[in-house]
Design brief:
Largest sheet of chain A: 5 strands, mixed
Number of strands of chain A: 5
Largest interface: A-B, 40 and 31 residues
Order of helices and strands of chain A: HHHHEHEEHHEE
Radius of gyration of chain B: 17 Å
Strand order of the largest sheet of chain B: 2-1-3-4-5-6
Shape of chain A: elongated
Largest sheet of chain B: 6 strands, parallel
Mean pLDDT of chain B: 88
Helix content of chain A: 55-70%
Oligomer: heterodimer
Number of strands of chain B: 6
């Protein structure tokens, strides 16, 4: 009797712990989204406004130009544009707006535009899922393709599937070691674990490796 | 040329208006949100509406939605969407539905008044204009096999410049080719994409869409 009661208590504690972990991941994601918006709508807008103001200080066409000043203003304008570009990349890395707006399939498509190695899209689900599952899937794919690139892989293929209340993500690449990949993915694995999901790295034939994750995704 | 400007940031709205006026473009109205923008467009019938992608109340895609509405209900007004996003996804969404008289530029282009005026003129002419930085990114990305594989390296360069909204004359200057050579390249591109039977500016617009989808 006592044993059963204790066991029930331990199980209840475990459930609480899992729920707390999931809340921490959700809170972290919400904070990332807020940061992304602040960078885009705050800092970046201000830099654009500043570049306009700077441009307005240039002599009007037809008036007598002051070459040294004009050159400096042009240079400041170019530097500002660089800063705006870097800020954009930073905001995107923190939490891509396209993930919030349009979901995982769209965000993965965007990954193919700026990944260091070719990311081929296999079969991907177009459905909208719970935001924390979309985020976990996205960061897994982003992180895994980075790691695969560093390990010298020529490219990766991404598949996602919505099966029941789970999101299944599979990333397959050639030419990198499974152990190294697993080590590099520990942070993403924690994120997926906190949501009650699983991540595994499988060596398959011909030196190919598949990273597979199952993530609870009910809305 | 007459334009209206919609941006919720006052400094950017006023600054863009002043720069364009100095460059000889008439600013017929300014709006801080999509509702006001649609009102002004209905009253003023401008050649082009310049629209920030993010506006109140939700700051997600109000600008894109307003641009699509303007293209549907005011065919005489072109749209230029200014965006902080480099992802081609937003541009594709806009151009897929309304490829004519439509442009998508990165927000920071507003301080490059030459490029801005040029884009407005092309959009007013019914063409589509895509930001060169986005075009460059799209060229570099690994693609699925498709009709673009048939193009030679030079033809792909020419197609990228068409996507930026350049005329044949502009392309011949940039690539230092004779206008005749550029014309021949454009002809080959359209033939390879199967677009040689449609009217002229439609074909260029369709070629850009093929480029975006590849």
């Amino acid at each position: 009797m006592e044993n059963e009661r204790l066991q029930a208590e331990v199980l209840a504690r475990l459930d609480d712990l899992r729920a707390a972990q999931a809340r921490i991941v959700e809170a972290g994601d919400a904070e990332r989204q807020r940061l992304e918006r602040d960078l885009h709508d705050g800092a970046q807008q201000q830099l654009v406004a500043l570049s306009l103001t700077l441009r307005l200080t240039l002599p009007q066409p037809g008036s007598v130009p002051a070459p040294p000043l004009t050159g400096l203003i042009d240079q400041a304008g170019r530097e500002l544009r660089l800063a705006i570009g870097e800020l954009r990349d930073l905001a995107h890395g923190i939490y891509p707006a396209v993930l919030t707006d349009e979901g995982l399939a769209a965000a993965v498509e965007v990954l193919t535009e700026n990944s260091p190695i070719p990311v081929m899209i296999g079969h991907v689900t177009q459905q909208r899922l719970a935001p924390q599952a979309e985020a976990a899937g996205y960061f897994l794919i982003a992180e895994a393709s980075q790691l695969a690139a560093q390990a010298g892989a020529k490219g990766v293929t991404v598949d996602t599937e919505h099966a029941g209340d789970r999101l299944i993500v599979a990333i397959t690449g050639h030419g990198s070691s499974g152990n190294k990949l697993a080590a590099g993915l520990s942070e993403v694995a924690d994120r997926i674990g906190a949501l009650g999901g699983q991540l595994c790295v499988e060596d398959i034939a011909d030196g190919a490796i598949t990273i597979r994750a199952e993530i609870p995704c009910a809305l | 040329m007459r334009v209206v400007i919609a941006d919720d940031t006052m400094l950017i709205r006023e600054g863009t208006a002043r720069l364009l006026e100095e460059a000889g473009v008439e600013v017929a109205g300014k709006a801080g949100d999509a509702r006001k923008l649609l009102q002004i467009v209905a009253q003023e019938h401008p050649d082009v509406a310049i629209i920030d992608i993010k506006m109140p109340p939700t700051y997600t895609d109000e600008g894109l939605v307003a641009a699509e509405q303007i293209r549907s209900s005011h065919p005489g007004t072109g749209v230029l969407v200014l965006s902080q996003y480099l992802e081609s996804r937003y541009a594709t969404r806009l151009l897929e539905h309304h490829p004519e008289a439509t442009g998508y530029l990165l927000k920071e282009r507003v301080s490059d008044v030459g490029a801005l005026r040029d884009a407005i003129a092309r959009i007013a002419d019914g063409e589509c204009v895509l930001d060169p930085t986005i075009v460059a990114r799209l060229i570099k990305r690994p693609r699925k096999t498709g009709p673009l594989d048939e193009l030679t390296g030079r033809e792909r360069e020419v197609l990228a410049l068409i996507a930026e909204g350049r005329s044949n004359q502009g392309i011949s200057q940039i690539l230092v080719l004779s206008p005749k050579t550029v014309e021949a390249h454009v002809g080959h591109i359209l033939a390879k994409l199967g677009l040689d039977d449609t009217p002229d500016y439609h074909r260029r617009v369709l070629a850009v869409l093929a480029f975006l989808r590849s």
